Amino acid sequence: MGVAVANGMPMTATGDATGGVIPYKNPPALIAYYCGIFSLLPILGLVFGIALAAFLEYRDSSFRSQQDVASVLSLPVLAQIPFIITPAEQREIGKKRLLIAAAAAAMSCVVGVVLWRLGILNGLLRLI
């Protein structure tokens, strides 16, 4: 069969000129390729989130304390308004903390089930 690829190398009946490393012709290589790509996405998202938070913190020009006001304006501070939390705000903070705790517990369960299904958790339990 006189089929030739673009660089002039003939194809054999058992594979192609790349030795079977083309992902679409090797499904396990395709799965490994996509698992590698998808495992990098959370890391890239974390790096992007940290960079965005650092950039926004750097660009924030508000005063944070009494010393900031005194150093920038070169004037003494006469009064400071205290931060007061109302009972409604306390309830909202409590709801948010409860939601975060529930989400953390759910994620812990999901991670545990995934590790157990992959057999990683069984290997770790054998070491104990």
Structural class: mainly alpha
Number of domains: 2
* Rg of Cα set: 29 Å
Compute the average pLDDT: 78
Instruction: Determine the N-to-C terminus distance.
Output: 60 Å
Query: Which sheet architecture does the biggest sheet show?
Result: none
Tell me the β content.
under 5%
Annotation field: number of helices: 4
Shape: elongated
Number of strands: 0
The amount of helix comes to: 55-70%
Low-confidence spans: none
Could you state the order of secondary-structure elements as H and E? HHHH
Features:
128 residues, mainly alpha, 2 domains, 4 helices
What does this molecule look like?
- By secondary structure, this protein is mainly α.
- It has 2 domains: 15-77; 87-128.
- Helices cover 63% and strands 0% of the residues.
- The chain has 4 helices and no strands.
- The chain has helices at 27-59, 66-73, 87-118, 120-127.
- The chain is elongated.
- The termini are far apart.
- The mean pLDDT is 78.
Give me a quick take on this structure.
This protein has 128 residues and is mainly α. It contains four helices and no strands. It folds into two domains: 15-77; 87-128.
Detail the topology: elements first, then pairings.
Elements: H1 27-59, H2 66-73, H3 87-118, H4 120-127
